[in-house]
Amino acid sequence: MASINKTGLSYYTIDTDRYQDRRIKRLKKSFGCQGIAVYDYILCAIYRVQGCGSEWDEDTAFDVAEYFGLKESLVNEIVKYCGAVGLFDATLLSGGIVTSAAIQRRYLEMCTRAKRTNVVIPEKYKLPNLPEKTAILPEEMPILPEKTENLPNDSGSSPNTRVIKKEKKSKVNKNT
To answer: Residue 129 carries which DSSP code?
Structure first.
């Protein structure tokens, strides 16, 4: 049975342009698909267990290496490179923590979407300059007053008036 106070996530969002990120391109150029696979494996482990970061030690390196049939030294080199190019925070990585501002922002965003309350990033994973709360999601935006906007109609003569309501889901009403 699932825990009510689950920390990790069952899934996480991925940017569709992630392979256009120069840091990912550098990782692939230096380590091939093995580099990307290791990075992706670590992201899955982070989001699955803690959601916002993970310990990096010999046991973790072994788990990753064993999964892909790689040498632990290669896995450690890949992770170190990820820190050097900014995919992981280099300062925390030197202390045995894999995380990044992007990982933590995505974690907070996913928790907000899942309507989790009291989400806290543990101090050992916390990065400076990370906002405590994520932006308000569209479905949580306050209701704003109506405004009208004059639009030209199809014939080009008199304008149509369109009432724009900003509610939980935007609705557009055309009055002709």
So the answer is: T
